[in-house]
Structure formats: structure tokens, C-alpha cells
Input
Amino acid sequence: MAEKTRRDFIKTAAVSTAFLGLFGGREDVILNTLKFQPSIEWPKPPVMEKYYTSCGVCHSQCGIIAYTKDGVIKFVEGNPKDLHSGGKMCAKGIAGTHLPYAPDRLKYPLKRTNPEKGIDVDPRWVTISWDEALDTTAKRLKEIKETYGPQSIIFIAYPNSYVERLRKAIGSPNRITHHDTCIITHVVVQKFTIGAKLWSYDFPNSKYILCFGWDQPSKAKVCITRRFIEGKWKGAKVVVINPFVTLLSSQADEWIQIVPGTDLAFALAMINVILSENLYDKDYVEKYTNFKKYESEIRSWASQYTPEWASKITGVPAETIRRIAREFATTKPSVIPVHKRDPPGPNYANSWKLEHAIIILNALVGSIDNVGGWLFTKGVNFPSLDKVFPPPPYPKPPVKEDICGRSKLPLLDKVKLGIFSTLANHILEKKPYEVKAAVIYKYNLLSFPNPKKLVEALKKLEFIVTVDVLPSESVQIADIVLPECTYWERKGFSVRIYNGWYPQVSVFQPVINPMYSCKSAGVIFCELGKRIAPEYFKKSDGTFFTSTEYLETAVKHALGISFEELAAKGVWSKPGEFKPLTKLESMAKAGKKIQIYGETFKKYGYDPLPSWEPRRDKPSSEYPFYLIITRPAVHRHGKTTDNPYLLEACPENAAIIHPETAKSLGIRDLEWVWVESRAGKVKVKAKLFDGIRKDCVCLSHGFGHWSKGLIYGYKRGANDGDLIPDQTIEDILARKDPTGSACMSDVCVKVYKA
Ligand SMILES: Nc1nc2c(c(=O)[nH]1)N[C@H]1C(S)=C(S)[C@@H](COP(=O)(O)OP(=O)(O)OC[C@H]3O[C@@H](n4cnc5c(=O)[nH]c(N)nc54)[C@H](O)[C@@H]3O)O[C@H]1N2
Ligand SMILES: Nc1nc2c(c(=O)[nH]1)N[C@H]1C(S)=C(S)[C@@H](COP(=O)(O)OP(=O)(O)OC[C@H]3O[C@@H](n4cnc5c(=O)[nH]c(N)nc54)[C@H](O)[C@@H]3O)O[C@H]1N2
Ligand code: SF4
Ligand SMILES: [Mo]
Output
């Protein structure tokens, strides 16, 4: 990054640090900065090439404009025409310009020469040619398939069509995807109650926004934050329920410090009040939900959950719950947003029920598919790889069962997601069979619960290939490493799913030439496919297809323009007005209604109504504190905690505890402490902060790298994952949770001086 740009970045990042809300930051200044950012005059060196592309740091994939000189990125800014960025970027996106120039990025294919594997074991890498890397990988995977069967090869991967084609061509039932960790409760519960996962909210028209731990503005996710701020500044009342103060709580009209893992009781009591006082939107509920059909069951179920009952569980006065229920039902339009890892995400044993309760609340006030409420995604149908290049029939996996137990959870199986928290245990126990090889793509081992156990499990495999951009922990455990080029160096597109107003697509295009000898995942997996199962990587004329051919055909088919035209425009849009209730009307015509009473859940043996269920782990004399997990505004999981610019803004994580709690434990600010759970312990500095409940400890996710290859990120802070117990499929089945949630925050800990 040019020096001038870098200084500017640090200025922005310093402001963004306060986003953390951990150290009493000036959140009012930050919100002003975000709102008025367009008026900042950024310096632009005079003669530069200009490219439209998208940010590849987080899933929002904001549309951006990159300026290059002599083939080097010099400056980036948001693309004002993009629905997501609206001309703005967050610190993570701007600092992403470091990635292609990171001295520690993977540059050439690598081969391990030390057969020993594990944390702190030097792999003794040697660089090899692409031919050797691809040939060796193909040979080893074919041998393992032939000797032990295709099920012995597992794919731990970010969703990708080429990876999926290879897995299916090999005939392995084992896919563990990024989304298994992140959104499964939301996806499963929304799919089987509303019919689809919804992603966006009409905040600018909301009058009352009730957040059960929903916290995206504190993460600086530009597209969502911009809409939220618009609603807030237009006068929406914002009520935040969160045991921990964040940027969002500082912007709230009311902040409620609930006992972690008890939001379900709060939500159930709100349903009780709204139904018993008949405050619900009768017309909407009768037309678009199955309330009428099950009214007596629903009313008798809800009648047990009085605010007085919920008060004992949540620690929130009954009168507050009652008042919020009434305000929510009568201040219209009102909305309860959900995102990914808020409490209805896969965090607590009762999270899937909280998700259902929140859907019921939104339905009772008529907020789904309505002004100021939840919006159905207006997507664009890109033809799939299988549609463009139809494969021959895939081989049937020799066993139906997968290694993680997904096949035992039919609803999870139907949405094509899986379970990741059982992987370590099931590999070690050979349950239901032995795993011998792994293909890892864009997925870090540190993201798993109890990752040290996963390392022990993966060490036992005969062969691992990892495709990554940085020398992550997933690289350190590999036999062969294949370097992917960064998002600045490859082609693609992004559908704006976080905005439901009208369809829009933005472009990814190479703004610089691929550096070193890196290749895109499309190229890498097609090359592996050619060597392992060639017939699945051919066109109908018998020649091999390329990922570029697919991309060009898909763009032409979906948008009617060429990829080059999309790249020149930056974004493709089909503007149109939001017509409320259109989707629900068409569903009603087809005889489908929002399932307040979960008919599908019942059919599959799950609770049709979200009856109260406590969290899994409760404080005990051994582990007296609740663990809370969050992520800093200026980092994106573990993939930016090796970025020197972002590390200047947020260099490490800390165990955040209340000053009074710290005093009772004899712990001073910034002193080293151990945080310990039933799964393991981590050593970090303590940070005293009175914006947290006295019975909680909060850690940010993304730190604690042990890969020595990560020259900036190595050994900074601690990995919260070391405190999270992994699970077995039996644990999940016993909880009767159809979503296979990992219960990422359902953990209690103790804290003591190190
Ligand atoms: N900056 C940044 N943004 C990101 C990401 C990132 O890494 N960095 N990652 C992206 C991804 S993949 C994800 S999954 C999302 C995650 O982002 P979020 O879905 O916002 O999840 P968390 O960051 O874990 O924050 C969860 C919030 O819930 C609160 N909380 C915890 N337990 C409870 C509880 O029992 N009740 C209540 N009411 N509140 C509780 C926490 O204090 C925290 O404020 O963010 C996305 N955006
Ligand atoms: N302890 C704990 N674990 C968690 C969470 C938590 O809060 N606490 N959150 C969970 C959630 S919500 C999520 S979404 C997941 C996130 O988990 P991951 O998706 O694993 O996220 P990262 O830690 O960012 O690691 C991404 C990996 O992809 C690599 N990578 C980055 N860009 C590219 C690229 O362009 N190509 C390739 N090939 N590789 C690339 C990075 O170097 C890194 O190895 O973690 C989950 N795990
Ligand atoms: S919110 Fe930030 S990190 Fe995410 S895509 Fe936009 S600019 Fe990039
Ligand atoms: Mo996530």
C-alpha cells in the first residue's frame, strides 16, 4: 500500500478500533464518520488504471473500485452504484490491499518432507512444480480411494462448485463446509418455517428494532450497518438485549443485560403477552400463517410462559419484558433481525428454538415480507456448473452415512449443510468408519471447536492437501499445499443477497496479474479433476472445460451480457420497487403459509412449538462464569489477524471481565490470566471493562494462531476455540436439535491469574 494511503488507512483504522466498544470508544464519532464518509476527500494519485471489482474479505463482498499504477494496487474505494457498499468500505476491506503483497502469502506449491505432524512441528517444506503437486495429489487420492473406498476421503471446504464436483466424482459423502459452522440454525429453521433463508431488513422504514444479540453494526458490515443507521437516524427505537456492551448497545434507546443463553425465555414471554392481550396483526396472521389452524394448541402452549416466569430465568424484570412485548406489537413497523452468530445462531442448545420463537414474533406483528421488516432475497439465477456442463451420473457413495452424522439429521441433510463439531471425535473413534485423506480448501482448523483435538485426529490421516492463500494452520498439517491467488487476482461475481429491494450482481475481476505461481481454485480443482476423474470435467464435445468458460457462460445466461461488459459496468442491476407481501401472497396461493406451528418439525419428530429448553452448560463452582464470544470490527475471523494494518488497530484479543469480578479474583488490568473450561485452557491478558455482566467473560474470535508461517499473526492473543468442547452425534441427537448446532458459546469457564 502506498505510504500516503497507508497513513490514511491507519487514521481510519484508529477510529474503527473504537468500534470494538471495549475500551469506551467514541461510538458517536464512528457513526458520524460512517454517515458522512462520502464528504471525505480522499487523495488520488493522478494517472491510474481504474477497475471495478468486489471486496473479498467478508461475505458482503462490497462493490469497490481499485486504482492501479504499473500493475500495483495503489488505492481503493467503495463503488457508489453498489447496493452493498454504497461507495463506502470498512477498515478490513481497505486493509485487504495488503494480501497480494503479504510477504508470507503462499507463492508456490509446497511438499512436506517431515513425516511427523503437529503443532510446533516444522513441516520442512520444499517448493515443487505444479505438475508434481497436482500429480502427487491425484495419485495419493486415487490410491486411497481404491484401497479404502471413496468415503475415506473427506472434504473440508468453503462451498465451491469445482470442489463439489470433485467430491461427487470421487463418490465421497463427506463434505464439511464453512456454513456448517456459521448459519445452520438460521438456515434450517427459516427454510422449514418461512420457506427460505432471508438475509435483509427494511431498516430505513422500521420504527422499532429489537435486537436479541443481533450486532452487525458493531462488526462494521457496511451493507447492513448503512441501512441500520438510516433507520436509527430516521427515529426508529432501538432495543438491544446483550450481556455485553457493543457499539450497538451504545446506540440503543434501551440496553438489557440478559443472562447469556436465556433469550428464548424472553421471547416466549413476549409471545405470551402478545397473544394473551391480542396485540397481534390479525389480518396478516390469518392470511399468511398457520396460526388459525392450530390456535388452541398455540395459545395453550404460550400461556405457560408468563413474564414473571421468564424474569426468573433471564434476570430481566417482568414489567420490562411485558412493556417491550407491547411496544414491539404496537409500534409498527417493528422488526427483530437475525444474522449469523447472534443467540439464534448455532451458539446455545436452545438457539434453534429461539430462531423459531423470533420468527413467530415477527410473524405475529406482520413483519415478514413487509415494509420495515424482513425482506425475501431478490436474487439472480445463475445456472449451476452442473447445468452448464452436465456431468455423467455420479457414482453412488458406497455408504450413505457421512463421517459427521449429518445423515441422522434429515432436515439438515435436506438443506445440504452438515455438522463440523463432531469431526475430530468421529475421526479418532473411526465412527462410522476410518478416514484416510482430507482435501482442505479455504477453511482453517482454528475455526473448529477444540482444534487441538482436530489436529490430533488429522495427524492420523495418510494424506492431506490444502488449498489456501496464507500459511494457515490448515497448511501446517498438509502433505501438499496448493497456493490460490487472492481475490484481487481472479474472476467471479457476487449476488447482493444482503439487500432485498431488487436484484443486483457485482463483479470480481483481476485488478493485478496473478502473482508468483498462484492459481484460482477453479483452475486448481479442474486440474485435479482431470487427473482423478476426467470424464466429470469434460464438455459434451469431449474436451475439458475451464472455470473461465463456466463463468462466461453463466454470466451471459443470467444477465444477458458478457463477462467483460459486467466488468466494465461494475454492477448489473434490475431496479424495481419493493412490493410488500408479494412472496407471501404467492405462497398462500400455493397453499403454503408461515409455520408458526412447525408442522414440518413435528413430522420429523421435533418440537413443533419452541417449548422452553435451558442452555447446555450452566455455571458451577468449578466453572462459575459464562463465556461470551464475539468478533472485532476490524478483523474477519482468523484470516485478517495476520494483516499488519489491522493488527495496528486491534493487535490481540483479551479476556474481558467486569472490574468488580476482577477485583474479587485479584486480577489487575492487562495482567496475564488463564481462562479454563471443561474443554481446555488459554492464556491471555485480562481487560477490565464495566460494560459486561459480572458473571461473564468475553473473548473475540480470530486470534491465537500457532502457525509459524503467519509472520504477523503468530502467537497473538488466544483462540477461544480451545475452550469450546467438540461433540459427538449422540450428544446432538440427545438434545433433539434438528440443526446439529455446535453450541459454540454454550460454555462456562473459570478465570485465574497466570
Ligand atoms: N468485523 C467482522 N464482521 C463479521 C465477521 C468478522 O469476523 N468480523 N464475520 C462474519 C460472520 S461469518 C459472522 S458468523 C458474523 C458474526 O457476527 P454476529 O452474528 O454479530 O456474531 P458475534 O460477533 O459472535 O456477536 C454475537 C453478539 O451476541 C452477543 N451475545 C452472546 N451471547 C448472547 C446471549 O445469550 N444473548 C444475547 N442477547 N446476546 C448474546 C455477544 O455479546 C455479541 O455482541 O459476522 C460477520 N461479520
Ligand atoms: N472458536 C470459534 N470458532 C469459530 C467461530 C467462533 O466464533 N469461535 N466462528 C465460526 C464462524 S461463524 C465461521 S464463519 C467460521 C470461519 O472460519 P473460516 O472460514 O475457517 O475463517 P478464517 O479463520 O477466516 O479462515 C479462512 C481460511 O481460508 C484462507 N483463505 C482466505 N482467503 C482465501 C482464498 O481466497 N482462497 C483460499 N483458498 N483460502 C483463503 C485463510 O488463510 C484461512 O486459512 O469459524 C467458525 N469457528
Ligand atoms: S463489509 Fe468491509 S470487509 Fe466486508 S466486504 Fe464490505 S468492505 Fe469488505
Ligand atoms: Mo460465520
The mean pLDDT is 93. The longest strand covers residues 681-688. The pocket of iron/sulfur cluster (ligand 3) is lined by residues 55, 57-58, 60-62, 85, 89-90, 92-93, 221-222, 636 (CB under 6 Å).
